[in-house]
Structures are given as C-alpha cells and as structure tokens.
Amino acid sequence: MKEEKIYIIGAGLSGLIAALELEKSGFQPIILEASDRIGGRMKTDEVDGFLLDHGFQVLNTAYPEVKKYLDFQALHLKKFDPGAVIFDENESYIISDPLRNPLKVVSMAFSKVGTFMDKVKMFTLTQDLKQKSLDEIFSSKSIPTHQYLKDYGFSDQIIENFFKPFFRGIFLEKHLNTSSRMFEFIFKMFAIGHAAVPEKGMGEIPAMIREQLSSTQIYFNHPVEEVQGSTVLLKNGEQLEADRIIIAVQPDKVMKQLQGQFAPPQSVINLYFSLQKSFLARPMIGLLPGEHLVNNIVFMDDVSPEYSKDGKALLSVTVLESDLDEKELIRQVQKELSQISGIKSDFFKFIKSYHINYALPHVDDLKYTIPFTECKISDQVYLAGDYLLNGSINAAMTSGRIAAEAVIHSFMPTH
C-alpha cells in the first residue's frame, strides 16, 4: 500500500468514484464529508414507511460510466415504461414509446400531442442520434434546445405538449435554454437505454460504490473551511497536511480565490404525497404541459413497490420554481393534482418536501469528457464534479475517475 496522504473533499458520486480508482492503484484515500452520510445529491430517506429520494432522479441504463461501476442486477433496477402520460386541460392520454419507435405510435393520442410529421421527425432524430457518437454530440454546435427543436422542424404543438414538460423536468429550467448538446446526449441515452431506479431508492447507487471501497476512510461531519496550498483547514480548526487533494464539491466553497466563478445552480422542489391508490397505474411519468405549478409527477410505487411499505401509493411531484410559502405551495399542488385526477384534494396526504437549492450545476460549455490535465488546479489540488462536464450521473462518475487518473499520474516519475 502506498503511503501518500490523499484527501478527497465530499462523499458524493464524484468523490466515491475517485476513491475507488485511487484504491485500484494502491492508494488509501481519506474522504472528508460535511454531512452525516454519503451520496451528495443522491440520497433516499425512509419516512413513515415510504422511501423518499431527494428530488425525482432516474438512472439511465445506457450511461457508459454507470455500466463500469454498477451491478444492475444487484441493484434490482426497476424500469419506467418509455413515453409519458400527458395531462391536457380536461383529459389525459399516453404517448407510449415516442423515443424508441415513434412510427409505431399510430394511436390518436399522438395526433393530440403532435402532427404526423412530428412522428416522422421523431423517428429520424432517433435514428440520427443512434448513429452519432458521444464525442460528436459534445463537439457539435451548441444552441438552446428550444431553438434546436424548431430548427429540426418540430411543430409548436409537440414542443409545448411533450418536449417542454419532459425536458424541463430533466434540465430543471422552464424555457429549454439548455444546450442542444445536452438535449442530444439525453435523447440518445433514452433512445438506447432505459430510465430506471434501484428497487430500494436512488441512495442504493452511492451505497453500492461505497461497498466496493476497502481501504478508504470516510470521516463524516467533517466540513472543510478552506483549502490553502496542500493544507486542508477544517471548520473545527483542525489542519490536515496532504500530498494531494481532490475537491469533489463545487470548489468555490473551499477555495476563496474561486468565489464568483460559478453561475447559480438549477434548483428544484420535490413534494411527496400518499394516496389510497395510483391514478396512473403504470410505471410512467406524468407531464403537465402549459402553465402549471407542477411540472411532472410519478407514482414511485408503480415503478418499484418497495418504495411503499403499506400498499399506499407514493406520489412524487416536481415543481421547478415557486415563491409560495410551504403551506400555500402544498395547497396549490393538491389543487392541481385534484384537477388532473378528479380526486378530492384533501385525499392527497402530504408527507414531506425537499427544496433542493443545488440540484444541477449551471454549465455553459458542456463537455462529455476532459483530459486529466484540465482538472488540475495546482501540483497538489485537483477537481472533480459534474459541473466540469455536464449535469448528469454519468458526468459525476466520469469526473471522479478523471481526477483520480490525474492524481495517479502526478506520482509517476517523469523522465
């Protein structure tokens, strides 16, 4: 075992993957985690017999990095049905599988969502992106997604009814200003992979990575005040001397010189309600086009029954932005749920809400990967985090791996 002292700040996905890769090369890293558990933004709570993920998140089975580090069978992945249930003004209809086989969707429902030409375009886009490599996607011209969809020839009807509510829930912003590179990447992943959750919640993902660690120490409740050179200053006043430091949190939190370098992240509000039974009755996402408080809904127990212990339905609701206080927010959400389902609003029993201020990083220049030289700040300090690439589970893992490679390389003798 190698003796070098390597500290990793943050036990989210990036930090855990960095530790795993360092271990493979014989190092024994130490992770400093500010909170009392691993996972960063990926956590699952157990409340009143329900499993509540912090924010509605899914794992895409086509993500290349995910396949390297996770055992899908051991996670007992539960897949969503492709497509969506669209809640229009006074009716709901299903578009099944619009990304996988759009031409098969000959039901009338699609004509309400979009035109026949939209179907053809959806088909050609799917075929185009299946052929396009990830490197090509991330080096292509970047324009806002809403512009990209118009330029591709999609009708306003399908942009408003399907693309907007579907991708707003992924990008966590209302106007689809997110780069077309991210749209192409996510669209391709959904076309070739499946959206899924581990049977017992998204927190199982970081737990599985932690289980693979054997010589890494994790210190919980160890918030870092600042990194100065090769010294880590903890909030409790302790000073740790390091040979190398990987900062696996947004670095302006611990490096004063980087403050003001990062655009505000995307935030989201996630509310959970219980109900006697699901009114969707299928493992599918429900979308509310137009101007609603609620963007999308999912009955998590329709996807994995383990999310609810007592047979009640568990409804996850995503709200992109709201200035309402908690009480009023809950009331308005219950009202919208009642309107789309015909079920009285007080039947939706509120369980818990999560106001996630840092849900996704705001990244202007989206990348799929970077050379490991680009995550080095100084000879001692290296960076990891999805903000270096793009806001995705895949990017979090990639950045952790690249930071570890950079550190391993830095110890190699130069000739």
Automatic annotation (TrEMBL):
This is FAD-dependent oxidoreductase. Residues 13-408 form the Amine oxidase domain. GO terms for molecular function: oxidoreductase activity. It comes from Algoriphagus kandeliae. Pfam families: Amino_oxidase (PF01593).
